[in-house]
């Protein structure tokens, strides 16, 4: 008890009614603060007397235990609506155990919540006067820990897989070289009989190339990127991509339309990587138009960004697949690896940019790369150079 109240208690008979009123007012104000603090904490707090009847239950505890009403007349466990919980408290309180962070799962409509419960003796003026129960909802904490563990084991697995992929690359290259040698030897004695062997060699070569591109794409997707951003002309990269794909487009009856806004500003890009990102989008767009169509690539400035939009008039993407297309290995193609958009996403992120998609099934899709425009460096002038007088400052000659 505070000294001021102890003193007041000693001379209570001599305190005039006005003084008593003031003391009670002070006491009540202090009490309200303590109560408000206890009710405001996110942790649940329950105070029980020596007969395990609750004297105080704060709002968080009421919420955690879904206690709509409670009374000081019955033991705590008699008022809990969950049998497991009631059993736990009955045993722990009666045994006078000190409980430290015991985890209990409670089934709730929104899913299972994990509650950490601690019980300790309530000590007041050197004497045990009851029990203090502390509750903490650790569901989200546990979830975050589990996510972190999953991310860590995934990272370890990725490193391992990258190592294996890297080891596959070299023997693959050597198999390709050896096949080339075999082809040359056979070439010298080419007869009708050996003709079918050339066909088999071509098939093996195609499979090797496919395997190699899977490994290369995989390594590109998982390894940290070697990227150097410099102020450069993004529209030139777009033109390079168009040139590169023009023959293939013609073969597939696809006409390419480029709309490049005049006087575009330079942006921070890594030409080689941006080209790869765009190529992946353009290849997808072309694959989405098996019967031909129009591929439109526009480059323009909007909302402080340089935007590169690639539109096709192809099959479109069903709404339910939209969230998946950037996931590694997600593909709807027979011979796709599903890494194209993963790599594009990674490159765009390295450019501090964003990528957005709009699509309507059987009408077409638009993939837009958003690159931030370089912001002019803001120079903060000292106030006196800005003609602003600083109050109280005097320039002396
Ligand atoms: N323009 C598009 N129109 C329709 N579907 C698309 C388009 N672009 C992407 N998709 C869908 O997204 C999926 C994933 O694309 P992503 O480029 O990542 O892999 P992929 O093209 O299947 O294989 P690859 O690794 O060879 O590129 C595609 O399989 C396809 O279903
Ligand atoms: Mg692709």
TrEMBL record:
<dbReference type="InterPro" id="IPR036097">
    <property type="entry name" value="HisK_dim/P_sf"/>
</dbReference>
<dbReference type="Pfam" id="PF00512">
    <property type="entry name" value="HisKA"/>
</dbReference>
<dbReference type="GO" id="GO:0005524">
    <property type="term" value="F:ATP binding"/>
</dbReference>
<feature type="region of interest" description="Disordered">
    <location>
        <begin position="373"/>
        <end position="397"/>
    </location>
</feature>
<dbReference type="InterPro" id="IPR004358">
    <property type="entry name" value="Sig_transdc_His_kin-like_C"/>
</dbReference>
<dbReference type="InterPro" id="IPR003594">
    <property type="entry name" value="HATPase_dom"/>
</dbReference>
<dbReference type="Pfam" id="PF02518">
    <property type="entry name" value="HATPase_c"/>
</dbReference>
<dbReference type="InterPro" id="IPR035965">
    <property type="entry name" value="PAS-like_dom_sf"/>
</dbReference>
<dbReference type="InterPro" id="IPR005467">
    <property type="entry name" value="His_kinase_dom"/>
</dbReference>
<dbReference type="InterPro" id="IPR003661">
    <property type="entry name" value="HisK_dim/P_dom"/>
</dbReference>
<keyword id="KW-0902">Two-component regulatory system</keyword>
<keyword id="KW-0808">Transferase</keyword>
<dbReference type="GO" id="GO:0000155">
    <property type="term" value="F:phosphorelay sensor kinase activity"/>
</dbReference>
<feature type="domain" description="Histidine kinase">
    <location>
        <begin position="163"/>
        <end position="375"/>
    </location>
</feature>
<protein>
    <recommendedName>
        <fullName>histidine kinase</fullName>
        <ecNumber>2.7.13.3</ecNumber>
    </recommendedName>
</protein>
<dbReference type="InterPro" id="IPR036890">
    <property type="entry name" value="HATPase_C_sf"/>
</dbReference>
<keyword id="KW-0547">Nucleotide-binding</keyword>
<dbReference type="InterPro" id="IPR000014">
    <property type="entry name" value="PAS"/>
</dbReference>
<keyword id="KW-0418">Kinase</keyword>
<keyword id="KW-0597">Phosphoprotein</keyword>
<keyword id="KW-0067">ATP-binding</keyword>
């Amino acid at each position: 008890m505070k000294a001021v109240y102890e003193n007041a208690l000693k001379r209570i008979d001599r305190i005039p009614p006005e003084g008593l009123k003031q003391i009670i007012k002070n006491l009540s104000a202090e009490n309200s603060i303590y109560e408000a603090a206890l009710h405001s904490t996110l942790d649940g707090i329950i105070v029980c007397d020596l007969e395990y009847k609750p004297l105080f239950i704060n709002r968080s505890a009421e919420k955690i235990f879904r206690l709509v009403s409670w009374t000081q007349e019955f033991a705590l466990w008699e008022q809990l609506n969950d049998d497991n919980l009631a059993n736990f408290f009955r045993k722990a309180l009666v045994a006078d155990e000190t409980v430290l962070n015991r985890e209990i799962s409670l089934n709730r409509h929104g899913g299972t919540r994990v509650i950490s419960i601690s019980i300790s003796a309530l000590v007041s003026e050197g004497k045990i006067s009851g029990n203090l129960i502390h509750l903490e909802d650790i569901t989200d904490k546990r979830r975050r820990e589990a996510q972190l563990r999953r991310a860590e084991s995934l990272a370890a697995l990725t490193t391992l897989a990258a190592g294996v992929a890297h080891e596959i690359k070299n023997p693959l290259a050597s198999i390709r070289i050896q096949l080339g040698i075999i082809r040359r030897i056979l070439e010298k004695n080419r007869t009708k009989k050996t003709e079918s062997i050339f066909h088999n060699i071509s098939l093996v070569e195609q499979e090797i190339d496919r395997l190699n591109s899977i490994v290369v794409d995989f390594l590109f997707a998982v390894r940290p990127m070697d990227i150097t951003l410099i102020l450069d002309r993004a529209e030139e990269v777009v033109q390079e991509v168009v040139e590169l794909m023009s023959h293939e487009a013609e073969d597939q009856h696809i006409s390419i339309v480029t709309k490049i806004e005049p006087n575009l500003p330079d942006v921070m890009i890594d030409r080689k990587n941006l080209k790869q990102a765009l190529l992946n989008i353009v290849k997808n767009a072309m694959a989405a138009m098996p019967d031909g169509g129009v591929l439109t690539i526009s480059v323009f400035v909007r909302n402080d960004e340089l935007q590169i939009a690639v539109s096709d008039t192809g099959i479109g993407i069903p709404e339910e697949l939209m969230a998946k297309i950037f996931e590694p290995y997600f593909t709807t193609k027979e011979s796709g690896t599903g890494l194209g958009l993963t790599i594009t996403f990674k490159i765009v992120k390295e450019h501090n940019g964003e990528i957005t998609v709009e699509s309507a099934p059987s009408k077409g899709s638009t993939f837009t790369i958003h690159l931030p425009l370089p912001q002019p460096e803001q120079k903060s002038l000292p106030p006196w150079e800005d003609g602003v007088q600083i109050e109280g400052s005097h320039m002396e000659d």
